[in-house]
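The record is passed on directly below:
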Amino acid sequence: MITIFEFIKKRRETIYEILFCVIACGIFGWIFETIEVLILSGQLTDRGILFISRINGFPLVWGFPFILIYGVGGAILIWAFKPLAKKPVLLFFIGMISMTVFEYLTSLFCELLLGEVLWDYSEQFMNLNGRICLFSSVVWGLLSILAVKVFGPFFHKLYGRIKHKHIMHIILIVLIIYIIVCYLLRPVLFENIVDSLTTDVTIRSLPDIKEFMNV
């Protein structure tokens, strides 16, 4: 029977490639959500664990432009749904359903265990407890197709072109540790910002679609 250490050793390169996808998808997710909220609400907000504060009038950037739900969710889509690459319709619905469940569970985890409400869809059409909504689900379906048919092959090709893999492995490990440290230290260093995330979740809510259409 193969041990966990033997499995990791055998699949080490695959594991590092998955971590590469997690980081890459998390960064793309941060860019996507920042632009999305900017277009819909006209507000440039701090997404994920990237915080911009000011000390004596000077901007201070803390954290990393990375959103975990996109990183993990994107990696899941790329690796788990790869067999559906030639069935886009089926991929859309399976991705939409599975990632909507994933988003709901993530919201529940953040609220119950971490004490944070990071998004709220209460004012959106067909929402469930403010954790998920129809618009978000449709977006997940579209992102599923993009992840499998576009981002997956692109990241795989990009990772394959890296010559010094051992250096990339070190960078990935350092980034993962750094992201964890940023998250653990943010309540201490940026207490006011964290409080604003838990008490004023409107910056994470998408504007009402009908209201946006009337602008």
Remarks:
- The helical segments are 4-10, 12-41, 68-80, 88-112, 134-160, 165-189, 191-199, 209-213.
- The chain has one domain: 13-213.
- Residues 142 and 149 are 11 Å apart (CA to CA).
- The radius of gyration is 19 Å.
